[in-house]
Predict the 3D structure of the following.
Amino acid sequence: MIRRLAPDSRKIELGKSPGAELAKLTTQLLNAMGQDLAAIHVASKIGAKALRADLRKRPPGWLGMAAKTMSDLVESDYRAWKK
């Protein structure tokens, strides 16, 4: 499940069983989210330049790794809160 950080947002169910279709959808969704976020930053020339410089420094797959790390942390926090 992925949830936007807004009070009027609905959750997006990605399913429970892993598979190629889910992996493809997840990749497409992450790419779309990244493009949406980038659009905010490129609204100014300074933002676009800074964004390009930052992205050049990052290794391939960094976004997926960061998303997995955050997912694990959120699940861990939830388990601790639920106790």
Notes: The longest helix spans residues 20-41. The helical segments are 20-41, 45-57, 62-82.
